[in-house]
Write a structure and sequence with these properties.
Layout: E1 9-14, H1 25-43, E2 47-54, H2 59-68, H3 72-89, E3 96-99, H4 103-118, E4 122-132, E5 137-138, E6 144-147, E7 156-157, E8 174-178, E9 186-195, H5 201-208, H6 215-224, E10 232-233, E11 235-237, E12 251-253, H7 255-273, H8 288-292, E13 299-305, H9 309-321, E14 330-334, E15 337-339, E16 342-343, H10 354-360, H11 364-374, E17 382-384, H12 386-406, H13 409-416, H14 427-434, H15 436-444, H16 448-469, H17 471-474, H18 481-502, H19 507-517, H20 549-564, E18 569-570, E19 585-586, H21 598-602, E20 606-616, E21 624-629, E22 636-640, H22 648-651, E23 655-659, E24 665-667, E25 670-672, E26 675-676, E27 678-681, E28 684-688, E29 700-701
Parallel strand pairs: 1-2, 1-13, 2-3, 13-14, 15-17
Antiparallel strand pairs: 4-5, 4-9, 6-7, 6-8, 9-10, 11-12, 15-16, 18-19, 20-21, 20-23, 20-29, 21-22, 23-26, 24-25, 27-28
Helix pairs in contact: 2-3, 4-7, 5-9, 10-20, 11-12, 12-16, 12-18, 13-18, 14-16, 14-18, 15-16, 16-18, 18-19
């Protein structure tokens, strides 16, 4: 734990939201996760600075502004105001929320580019790209559409097919056309600037395995090294909304070059605001170089979605290393958000903006609590189950936590003029205090779900104490005033401790409770203190209300109506928001006749399975009983109709593919917990599927 004389110096960032759409529930997973971590460390006494900014450059911004008849600067200013308001209302407390279209970012981007060039890491190369002869502009991949060369689905993007999942070059599209003008694009040569990422491979191999990344993230990055790294195209041709490359008229920095530098720019602005003179490098206050110099002893943490891990774990550290700056202490990647077990859906009304949630559910801390209860330190996706959301908020926050105060505070106010008289040694209070380190360790490790489970266990203990003592019965008995006062005082001390533990998640509610308890703002070392005898609390007022399922229904219905009335182009979901040129994703539903949608495919959880045992099933003509290892604590039992094709002994040790999220089926011979995939037709079979060399039990098949 930090001391007053020696606090840790920590700089924290979240990924920069793109200034081409509203903040939605998927975005909020990251910002709530980060904010909780920051608030916890500030409560510990550390010097923590949390900065972020709108990511404002790129072709989509330029085209949207043109469509709306305004300048890009006006567009991003409007979006910045909207984003700032949404974050503020969800209690995401940045120390500075800025814009990448800022003078600090331009200066830093150009300076870093010049240092990379001086280090021999910049080259030029003539490339061929599609060009829109009507708009007179080169087209990013996501602005070229046509027929998929693999499955022949119509209107697919220039880099990948959303129907069959194939990836390809834009030049492979059949009957390609510009998504901007509709014109047939032509091929045209242009000179581009490249960062020599291929020369950074050994540095990046070492860095990604240094403990900076989660293990699963490091493994993911390892895949990029298998065929060698390619040099990184960091330039775009005019017209383009961004920063012009020094000494290269008509050439602009690709948005992914200046976007992460936006972290530095936002912090530089914060440093300047801490110095009236504007000199952020003076010795007092915040010093930019102390946090970003190559030999910095401070800590730097990036919270990001797993979809942009490639940029943050390869491009970004290489850029920092070879421009003479420090690298991140750690990068924390998280998964995506699903709603009711599926991707956020416009047709179902579950693609919900932050503003829509606030309009209908009102209380942002309910969502903060629910996300925290689901979050851990891995890159697993989390699910917002709307029925579970209502049940958990009502049960945990209202039924357990607030219930402690609502059942005891009134007696202190009415019978004892607000004056407390706690016992000298309450065993439940002692147990709640003893959990402080476990909860702190969980917050530190981003295991918020673990922390909240422990806090709710303690809330159960406190409620058990209140129920056992039954102050409402005691209040009716003569001669029990002293005991009644002591019991209710002890319960409020338990409530104070639980509030302290929940404060990173529920900061607004904690502030209201601090006023009610008439105490100073809670820091983590307040665990060692207690509410004292003769301390007076203020009058208890109702703190939170239950969530009504009708509020959820209204929210989803409102989003269905709003989305049906909007144009077909909408901001991309979180998993795609930073894809390539940050292009908007089409919201049109996939064709229902010949193809399934990618959403349908992703519902099926396919896993690599190792056959650890296989045996005949007595009395079964077609079945073999398989024991399948898919990386879980114990193997799954699956009955497969492959007896006609396989001797069980030949299957043991082989890898195959199974459907892992198929509902268990009770069969005559036992429970079958999945399905093995096999091929067959009139030519023969069944033949089980076998993955390529390198696949391992538990891997997802995508």
């Amino acid at each position: 734990m930090a001391t007053a004389n020696n606090p840790r110096k920590i700089l924290v960032t979240s990924a920069l939201p793109y200034a081409n759409g509203s903040i939605h529930l998927g975005h909020l997973v990251e910002y709530i996760q980060t904010d909780i971590w920051v608030r916890f460390h500030k409560m510990q006494g550390h010097q923590v600075h949390y900065v972020c900014a709108d990511d404002t450059h790129g072709t989509p911004i330029m085209l949207r502004a043109e469509k709306e008849g305004i300048t890009p600067e006006t567009l991003i200013a409007n979006v910045h105001k909207e984003h700032s308001a949404d974050f503020s209302e969800f209690l995401v407390q940045f120390d500075n929320y800025y814009s990448t279209n800022a003078p600090e970012n331009k200066e830093l981007s150009q300076s870093i580019y010049k240092k990379l060039k001086a280090a021999g890491k910049i080259s030029t190369k003539t490339i061929e790209q599609f060009y829109d002869p009507v708009k007179n502009m080169f087209l990013p991949d996501r602005f070229i559409k046509g027929e998929c060369p693999k499955c022949h689905a119509k209107d697919q993007y220039g880099d990948s097919c959303e129907v069959c999942g194939a990836t390809y070059n834009p030049t492979e599209l059949i009957n390609a056309y510009s998504a901007v003008s509709g014109a047939a694009p032509v091929r045209k040569e242009t000179e581009h600037y490249f960062f020599k990422l291929s020369e950074c491979e050994q540095f990046l191999k070492d860095w990604t395995r240094s403990g900076t990344l989660q293990g699963e993230a490091a493994n993911k990055m390892g895949e990029w090294f298998e065929n060698g790294l390619n040099d990184w195209d960091i330039s775009r041709d005019a017209p383009y909304f961004g920063f012009e490359i020094p000494d290269a008229p008509g050439k602009y920095f690709y948005v992914w070059l200046d976007a992460p530098i936006g972290y530095m720019a936002s912090f530089k602005k914060l440093c300047a605001e801490n110095h009236p003179s504007g000199d952020e490098n003076q010795k007092s206050g915040l010093n930019f170089d102390e946090y970003w110099a190559k030999d910095s002893q401070t800590e730097l943490y990036h919270f990001i979605g797993k979809d942009i891990l490639y940029f943050h774990a390869l491009f970004w550290p290489a850029t920092l290393e070879f421009s003479g700056h420090r690298k991140p202490t750690q990068i924390f990647a998280h998964g995506f958000l699903t709603v009711n077990g599926e991707k956020m859906s416009k047709s179902r009304g579950t693609f919900v903006t932050a503003r829509s949630y606030l309009d209908h559910i009102k209380n942002p801390e309910y969502l903060r609590y629910y996300y925290a209860a689901k979050l851990n330190s891995t890159m697993e996706d989390i699910d917002l189950n709307l029925e579970d959301f209502v049940a958990r908020v009502n049960s945990d926050l209202v039924g357990k936590y607030i219930n402690i105060a609502s059942r005891t505070a009134g007696f202190i106010n009415k019978r004892f003029e607000g004056q407390l008289n706690p016992s000298a040694n309450n065993t439940v209070v002692s147990e709640i205090k003893a959990s402080a380190n476990v909860i702190a360790e969980s917050y530190t490790a981003r295991e918020y779900g673990k922390a909240l489970r422990e806090i709710m266990r303690l809330a159960d203990l406190a409620n058990g104490f209140v129920a056992d003592k039954a102050p409402w019965v005691m209040a009716k008995q003569e001669g029990q005033d002293a005991v009644l006062q002591e019991v209710c005082s002890d319960a409020l001390e338990m409530f104070r401790l639980l509030t302290l533990y929940l404060k990173p998640v529920l900061p607004k509610l904690a502030g209201e409770i601090e006023q009610f308890l008439n105490i100073a703002p809670l820091s983590w070392d307040a665990v060692a203190t207690s509410l004292l005898s003769q301390h007076r609390i203020n009058a208890y007022e109702h703190l939170i209300t239950r969530v009504d399922g009708k509020q959820i229904e209204a929210m989803t219905e409102a989003n269905k109506e709003n989305l049906q009335a909007t144009p077909t182009l909408t901001p991309a979901p979180h998993s795609q928001q930073r894809h390539a040129e940050h292009q908007q994703a089409a919201s049109a539903e996939a064709a229902e006749a010949e193809y399934i949608s990618i959403d349908d495919f992703t519902k099926v959880d396919l896993r690599i399975a190792k056959i650890v045992n296989a045996e005949h099933v007595e009395g079964a003509e077609k079945l073999l009983k398989l024991s399948l290892d898919i990386g879980e604590d114990k193997p799954r039992q699956v009955f497969a109709g492959i007896k006609s094709a396989y001797d069980p002994a030949t299957l043991i040790g082989r890898l195959t593919v199974m459907v892992a999220n198929l509902a268990p089926r009770k069969m005559k011979f036992g429970m079958s917990e999945g399905m093995v995939l096999a091929a067959s037709d009139e030519r023969g079979g069944p033949f089980i599927l076998s993955p390529d060399v390198g696949a391992a039990a538990g891997m997802k098949v995508k």
